[in-house]
Amino acid sequence: MGTHTDPVCGMKVDDKSAAGQSTYLNNTYYFCSQGCKTKFDQNPQQYVSQKAAS
Predict the structure, then answer these.
(1) What is the Cα–Cα distance from 13 to 33, expressed in whole angstroms?
(2) Where do the domains of the chain lie?
(3) Are 15 and 4 in contact (CB under 8 A)?
(4) Are 22 and 44 contacting, i.e. CB atoms less than 8 angstroms apart?
(5) DSSP-derived pairing of the beta strands 20-24 and 12-14
(6) Long-range pairs for 10-17 at CB < 8 Å and ≥24 separation?
(7) What does DSSP assign to residue 50?
(8) Residue 28 to residues 14, 18, 41, 47, Cα–Cα distance (Å)
(9) Quick one: which H or E segment has residue 52?
(10) Separation of alpha carbons 33 and 26, rounded Å
(11) Quick one: which of 15, 1, 21, 7 has its CA closest to 54?
């Protein structure tokens, strides 16, 4: 439980009110909108690598 950062747009998302969630490499990611979830699901490595570079 808590607040997470949407890996696509950077928006803060509460896990209870997130528009969606995906699991990639045993990590769960939360999204502010279905659009961000769709972008992530199409190419998760693009967004995970951006996060790791930050």
Answers:
(1) 10
(2) 3-53
(3) yes
(4) yes
(5) unpaired
(6) 11/36
(7) H
(8) 13, 12, 12, 13
(9) helix 44-53
(10) 21
(11) 7
Tell me the pLDDT tens digit for each residue of 1-54. 799 999 999 999 999 999 999 999 999 999 999 999 999 999 999 999 755 444
Cα dist from 26 to 22, 23, 29, 47, whole Å: 10, 6, 10, 15
Rounded to two decimals, what is the model's pTM?
Answer: 0.85
Sign for the pseudo-dihedral over CA of 10, 16, 22, 25: positive
* Tokens (6 digits) for 12: 């803060």
